[in-house]
Amino acid sequence: MANWHRPFGRGNAPRGKFLADFRLSGKVRGAAAALLLAGVLAGCQSDEFVASANKAKEPVSAAIKRKMTELDMPSQSPIMIRIFKEDSTLEVWKEKRNGRYALLDTFEICKWSGGLGPKIKEGDRQAPEGFYEITPGLMNPNSNYHLAFNMGFPNAYDRSLNRTGSNLMVHGACSSRGCYAMTDAQVQDIYALARDSFAGGQRSFQVQAFPFRMTPENMAKHHDSEHMDFWRMLKTGYDHFEVTQVPPKVSVCEKKYVFDATTLVEGVPFRAAAKCPDYKVPAPLEQLVAKKQAEDNKVFEQQVARIEAREDRERRWAETQSKFASALTGGGDRPQNATLSAPVEAPQVAQPAQAPQVQAPQVQVATQEAPAAPAAASTPVETAFAPEPARNSSSGSFLKRWLPFGSSDEDNTPSPEVGQITTESTPEAKPQ
Question: What are this entry's molecular-function GO terms (predicted)?
Fold first, then answer.
């Protein structure tokens, strides 16, 4: 087992030797545990998961076998993996007998670290985005996270931008510190599919890690992100696969990804940080991708216009609400004391000004001339106090706040006739 192991990541001791030393004695186990704890910040490390010795040799599940049969996929045909952070999904695509890839299964990612956007530096706990090639040397059958494969971060593109990080993996145990963590059952199938593809002759399989499905609608939703230029570049590779259903050939030059490119001068390599050599993309493929991107750009612009229009409406509505709130709290041209006094004087404001003036003479006549006057007087007395129950409601306050016209002196001056009514013909107690 120790002979199989290679250095796993950058600057780490062989994991097989580490596990052997781990079993020597209690003292050695304590030292190994300390080293393990110190390595946690570098990437995804051990959670002491214990599994059977044959876990790396287990066949794919019966459900996966049944799907491969239905989709006409040989058991050892090549695979490709796509990851979508926003959906928390990992897709396994597998080559059919006709040479095209089809979606074999979709797994829900148990946990992934960070947010949308690329990994920049060691310790940021950000799961990577980009195009990665997984070779047999990056497979780890003895992972303490059940089973795992290293994504090979940083790749040539990442290194051209001086991005740093190590031990970024797809693994089990549902625990992530910058990785894509699956359940043990899920990673068991994923690992077995990769292992079988290598046995069938695949030299490496591609992992395409995206922030979200690269549709024009999703691009529009995130159109104001600082990572948009990077995502547009990833979308080109996404589109190459969408139109061909074959993983694109990935190269890097001028610190950017290029897809399905062949240099015009044979033997001239692509260098990640150097100027791109003259290259070409097969014309039919280039036309298909250009057509798709033109259609997507049209939808993208429409979606962005709708989003911006909605945001503008929301902004103007927020400004209107702010102005109303300012007026209600005395922040406008209206004197503040008038607004604040409205709730106190609200019952008087709510009274129709004409009603007491018309009925008041009836009260006076009733007390001086006619015996039936008390009966007539009862009506104006009730009318005068009819608005009084509003003392415990907000109707007067509402009108005062939202219709702030007229001076405060006019609003708050009681009618003389009302005063005569309350003084000379005292009614029963007002309703409370």
Answer: carboxypeptidase activity; transferase activity
Residue type, 430: K
Task: Indicate whether 281 pLDDT > 70.
Answer: yes
Indicate the average pLDDT of the chain. Answer: 77
- Rounded to whole angstroms, the Cα distance separating 259 from 278 reads 14
Determine whether 380 is exposed, middle or buried from the number of CB atoms within 10 Å of its CB (0-12, 13-18, 19+). Answer: buried
- pLDDT exceeding 90 applies to what percent of the chain? 56
249 assigned to some structural domain: yes
Which candidate, 117, 84, 115, 113, places its Cα nearest to that of 230? 117
**Least confident segment among 105-109, 119-123, 325-329:** 325-329
Contact 130, 157 (CB under 8 A): yes
Position 370 in a domain: yes
Distance CA 301, CA 280 (A): 29
> Does the pLDDT value for residue 135 go beyond 70?
yes
**Phi first, then psi: what are they for 374, rounded to 5°?**
-55, -40
Residue 408 domain flag: yes
Residues 195 and 236 in one domain: yes
- Please give the pLDDT value at position 143: 92
Q: What is the DSSP string of 28-61?
A: HHHHHHHHHHHTGGGS---------TTGGGPPPP
List the catalytic residues.
Answer: 171, 179
274 is in which domain, residue-wise? Answer: 47-280
Does residue 54 share a domain with residue 26? no
Helix ranges, 276-369 (H) = 283-328, 336-350, 354-368
Predicted local confidence at residue 320, as pLDDT:
86
Please indicate whether residue 186 or residue 178 has the higher confidence score (pLDDT). Answer: 186
pTM of the model: 0.65
Burial class (CB in 10 A: 0-12, 13-18, 19+), 79: buried
